[in-house]
Amino acid sequence: MKKIEAKTLEEAYAKAANIFDCSVTDLEYEIVQHPNNGFLGIGAKNAVIVAACRTRSRAEKPSTPSHSDRRSAPKKPQKKTEQPAQSSRKETRPTPPEQQPLKKESAARPKTSESESVILNGFFDDGEKKQGKSMAENAEETKPALSNQELSITIEERLGTLMRSTCFDIDTVEVDVIDGTAYIFIDGEDAALLIGKEGYRYNALSYLLYNWIHNEYGLYIKLEIAQFLASQQEMIRNYIQPVIEHVHQSGWGKTRPLDGILVQIALEQLREEFPHKYVAIKRTKQGERYILINEFNKRS
Q1: Where are the domains positioned within the chain?
Q2: What is the pTM of this model?
């Protein structure tokens, strides 16, 4: 294929046909650049194509031998191929293990360091889990018959290993298991960084810990990082006080839109305040979450 440049595409096609000595209809081309007149001649561009001829030119066509040449040319002896009489199947011999090619998957798989594999295996893996079963069934089968104190020590050790593998400076990890709930306390110099702006890292860590601890031990969690949860609970308690007074007067009420963990804290406090009312999380048209307090027969 050759690169051809002209002012217009038609000129480029004609130029290519002359070069390859063929018709325009026999060209096989690709437009690299469309022509552009620009603005007052500024930025003008020529047409550029890459073309080739589909059929060979006359000069390139191989000459066919004449009738006299065919007579004079010696005939080549035909080789007889002997085929086995029994079967036409080829015998396949197993290649020795030294000559077998390596699989592409093992070559493309990234290598992990020994310390990373130890942390991941110790935190996530469970050798006694069987394939093909649900997470709840695995949790029931592998749930150890441990006391609350033994569960606290086990979770605390594994969570401490996880915290030491991160980039945060965390020196305190305490876990207490009481009435089916794991109360987790984390503190250190980087506790504020672990919480994140507006508590987004706190929410993510709570979600991860809940999925691990609840699926493996069947426990709920309460995560406290450097008194963050206590301060948020106190702030929400003061925030929903006018809502509580409005519900006592009118029988119903709702909060303003809340973010992240705040909506869960407000939900717990309002359900504790109104155990005989309908208290649930609702969403606005914009997707923001708020809490509605109403009678059970008036849920709209």
Answers
A1: 2-53, 135-226, 231-294
A2: 0.41
